Amino acid sequence: MTASTVTGTGVPATQAGYFQLRAELLGPSRTRLLTGPELIQVGLQVYGAPAAFSLYGVPAPEMAGCGLRLLGRTAIECTVDAYAAPVAAALAERVPAAGRPPLVADLFCGSGNLGRHLAAALGVRAHASELDPAVHAATRHNLTALGIDIDLRLEDYRDLLGRLTPHGPHDTYVVEPPWGPAFTEQGLDLTATAPPVPEILADITASRQGAPCLIVIKTNDRIAHDSLQRCFAAAEHLASITPAPTLPAGANMDFHLFRLSA
Ligand SMILES: C[S@@+](CC[C@H](N)C(=O)[O-])C[C@H]1O[C@@H](n2cnc3c(N)ncnc32)[C@H](O)[C@@H]1O
């Protein structure tokens, strides 16, 4: 990897610039609302073009005008529309249209954008939990501003699991905990996220008394310690989706779909 890369949109983005911005937004600007020009800068530095940073169907250059509120951390942690859409399509392909509509539970919802896409593809209302009051308040504001109907609660994901009654084998859980120190130059260690992915999977299984379900998980394109394989050793792999590689190597997102059963 050279010091600069040409992104999928043809706009040069520097690797150093990306990681510098990432550190700023996850660090000092973590809980600060970003300005319109800063949101455009995220689009340029992270996704190679201002409009490629798009959430809820709103591209970054229009976010401020729509009154959207995004914290530094969420601007980095979120799943943008162009990534969420193919994941939602892959999920919908595997869920029969007939029968009782499945649950969609976005356990670590942040912006709520990934759960929103998945639920829309299945024609259901997403349930979402978010523990950080500042993230929750910004997301609540954005959903209200845009008229998006999600059952969003300020709560721990275990409380959401405890409230949900399973519908059937296509109930879908979005597992996207903060990576924190689990993400290093060696890659992402899913056994070291907060909470660790194996613990979250055990909580989901327990809440359903072992009934099968679907899991959607976002990872980095560099996995440490074979941790994806180890976390999902007992699950059935259904699909992996790698959106267009517009980020510097080691910063790309992969999405995986698994069937989990006890
Ligand atoms: C990686 S972000 C999720 C991003 C999200 N998928 C999106 O598209 O914006 C993880 C989120 O989980 C929240 N979180 C952390 N621990 C949590 C917990 N125990 N229960 C619920 N939410 C939690 C964090 O505050 C953070 O906003």
Describe this structure in words.
The structure is a single chain. With 262 residues, the chain is of the alpha/beta class. It folds into two domains: 74 residues, no CATH class; 180 residues, Vaccinia Virus protein VP39 (Rossmann fold). Helices cover 36% and strands 19% of the residues. The chain is built from ten helices and 13 strands. The strands form four sheets. The protein has a seven-stranded mixed β-sheet with strand order 7-6-5-8-11-13-12, sandwiched between helices. A two-stranded antiparallel ribbon has the order 1-2. Helix 7 links the parallel strand 6 and strand 7. Helix 5 packs parallel to helix 6. The longest helix is centred in the middle third of the chain and has 14 residues. The chain is globular. The N terminus is likely disordered. It binds S-adenosylmethionine (SAM).
Query: According to CATH, what is the topology of the largest domain?
Result: Rossmann fold
Order of helices and strands: EEHHEEHHHEHEHEHEEEHEHEE
Overall number of structural domains: 2
The largest sheet has its strands arranged as 7-6-5-8-11-13-12
Low-confidence stretches: 1-12
The rough form would be described as globular
The counted number of beta strands is 13
Number of helices: 10
Quickly give the structural class: alpha/beta
The small-molecule ligands in this entry are: S-adenosylmethionine
* Rounded average pLDDT: 91
Percent helix, as a range, is 25-40%
CATH superfamily of the largest domain: Vaccinia Virus protein VP39
Name of the CATH first level of the largest domain: Alpha Beta
Name the CATH architecture of the largest domain. Answer: 3-Layer(aba) Sandwich
- Largest beta-sheet details: 7 strands, mixed
Distance between the termini: 41 Å
Radius of gyration, in angstroms, nearest whole number = 18 Å
- Our estimate of the beta-strand percent is 15-25%
